[in-house]
Amino acid sequence: MTTLLKVNNLVKKFGGLTAVSDVSMQINSDELIALIGPNGAGKTTLFNMLTGVISPSSGTITFDQEGKKISLNHKKAYQIAELGLARTFQNIRLFKDMTVLDNVLVAMTNQYKEGFLQAVLRFPKFYQTEDVIVKKARNLLAIFDLDKDMHKRACNLPYGLQRRLEIVRGLAMSPKILFLDEPAAGMNPEETAALAKLIRKIQKQFHITVVLIEHDMSLVMNLVERIYVLDQGTLLAEGTPKEIKQNKTVIKAYLGEEG
Amino acid sequence: MQTFFQQVINGLSLGSIYALLALGYTMVYGIIKLINFAHGDIYMLGAFWGYYVINVWHFNFIAALLSAMVICGLSGVIIEYFAYRPLRHSPRITALITAIGVSFFLENGMAYLFGSNARDFPQIVKQVNYNIGGVRISNIQIQILATACILMLLLQLIIRYTKMGRAMRAVSVDNDAAQLVGINPNLTISFTFALGSALAGAAGVMIGLYYNSIDPLMGMTPGIKAFVAAVVGGIGSVPGASLGGFLIGLLETLVQSVGLSAYKDAVVYVVLIVILLILPTGIFGKNVKEKV
After folding, report:
1. Phi/psi at B96 (5° precision)
2. How far is C-alpha B248 from the chain's CA centre?
3. Out of A102-111, A112-121, A133-142, which region has the weakest mean confidence (pLDDT)?
């Protein structure tokens, strides 16, 4: 097990408000991690910094690419994505007008080797690469039961499937780490349970690290190996689900002072 | 009836030029929400480039067309890089005013360097008229229509099937999300400008051949008409721009043929006003409600 992502003393200030203050964490390969905390704890802000949507006020983020340490602090979002950090969004952000298949293919842009003329003039070599990539996309869609809808427009999918499609789009980038921002939001208990199974399955099958933000404690406690608890921008605790359940400060943050 | 068909043929030829121009407007608007008022002047650059290479280097039609597309594509990328990219996160009105500035710069720059007088475009294609059931159609008209249709087809293939086309569509839907799936937005935007400007360059060479006269201000009126065409088709919609271009071309020639030549430009603007009143999103436009 190697450390993939190392976060040191990360701070994000919006004007006078400190959204994330002095957070340090370590994300290893092949791990399933949850980031929990009450609303406004700074979880999404942390995700946004890790994936380059916003830049941190101070602190460092270092990604380990096969032994090479790469600072992500001043990298652009698309460069971070190319390094292998994929994500989904709390409010679904699919390319709505495009087909389900195109949504997946667009995330595989850097896996295309075909030249421009080859694609336009439809050379045989283009069909070969296209075949390989479309096949890969179809396989991913099949894992999430989306293959039969692949020519539908993304906005015509039901809500639960849109959430799944976003995960497929993340996976299509062949990521090292997949960040899921509230993947079960708005799902019923059965859907949530099915999703948990899927997340575990893809994590094992593709040997990736999954980091998820989640409010549904039943999902988190049974699924993940390690939990980080964030409250008011600071890291409250870190540990296995069992440790977190018994942690006094965490219980206080969630349930308030003992009456 | 014969006159009607005659005007339809003329209108389609002119319309295909507007359609090529309108595509550039609509693609750039789709991707960065900028109405690129300098687009008509790229078309003027294309016409001047064609004039130059045909006269000096004795290029044939195809070579002049292709080289004009390359040169105009490059100009589009350079203009985007220096004029619009630094304003990417400024309010939209800033970029819009800059576009008008770029337009003046190109028009007056060309007038200053090469003189503002109109000149005859070299007639490399000898005009031959065919008579089909009383309707006269020239080989130049056929050439313009065919070239425009081939270019539009190529554009569709690029947008649908290449990775750059997919990236263009993704960036135009959600720029941030596109970045997070590994798409370089600046590269994609440059590519969009290159495509749109190349089409304008092709249109410039063809209009030179069709109307036989070019001058540094020639891009202004067609530029605005192509913009109207893009709005009529639904700005941001690629098939809409093609359709809008043909409609505006037809309308203009039909108005001329009923003896209202003096009003041909006015009618186009009336159409713009009517469209904005009754169908503000255009024929293929999406009804997007902005969230408050």
Report:
1. -65, -45
2. 13
3. A112-121
| Residue among A151, A123, A104 nearest B166 (CA) | A104
Chain B touched by A113 (CB under 8 Å)? no
CA distance B101 to A247: 64
User: Any CB–CB contact under 8 A between A137 and chain B?
Assistant: no
- B31, B163, B171, B291: best to mutate for the A interface, most A CBs within 10 A: B163
Q: Which CATH superfamily is domain A3-84+175-255 in?
A: P-loop containing nucleotide triphosphate hydrolases (3.40.50.300)
A151 touches chain B (CB under 8 A): no
B100 closest CA partner among B194, B235, B219:
B219
Q: Label residue A119 by pLDDT band (50, 70, 90).
A: low
Kindly report whether the global pTM for this prediction surpasses the value 0.80: yes
Cα dihedral value B89, B33, B151, B21, nearest 10: -110
Mutation target for B interface from A47, A78, A102: give the one with most B CBs within 10 A.
A78
B278–chain A nearest CA distance, Å: 25
DSSP string, chain B: -HHHHHHHHHHHHHHHHHHHHHHHHHHHHHHH----TTHHHHHHHHHHHHHHHHHHS---HHHHHHHHHHHHHHHHHHHIIIIIGGGTTS-HHHHHHHHHHHHHHHHHHHHHHH-SS-EEPP--SPP-EEEETTEEEEHHHHHHHHHHHHHHHHHHHHHHHSHHHHHHHHHHH-HHHHHHTT--HHHHHHHHHHHHHHHHHHHHHHHHHHH-EE-TTTTHHHHHHHHHHHHHH-TT-HHHHHHHHHHHHHHHHHHHHTT-GGGHHHHHHHHHHHHHHH-TT-SS---PPPP-
Give domain limits for chain B.
13-218
For chain A, the structural domain boundaries read 3-84+175-255
The token duo for A253 is 């943050």
Percent of chain B whose predicted confidence (pLDDT) is above 90 = 66
Cβ within 8 Å of B, A 37-96:
51-53, 76-78, 81-82, 86-87, 89, 93-96
Contact A120 B185 (CB under 8 A): no
Three-state SS sequence of B101-116: HHHHHHHHHHHHHHCC
What's the Cα-to-Cα distance from A202 to each of A31, A157, A214, B59, rounded to whole Å? 12, 22, 18, 59
Structure token pair of residue A207: 């040997």
Contact residues, chain B, for A170 at CB < 8 Å: 181
DSSP for A199-239, please give it.
Answer: HHHHHHHHT-EEEEE-S-HHHHHHH-SEEEEEETTEEEEEE
Residue of chain A with shortest Cα separation from B181: A107
Does the structure show a pLDDT above 60 at B143? yes
Closest residue in chain A to residue B153, using alpha carbons only: A120
Check residue A215 and give its pLDDT: 78
Which pLDDT tens digit goes with each residue over B183-234?
999 999 999 999 999 999 999 999 999 988 999 999 999 999 999 999 999 8
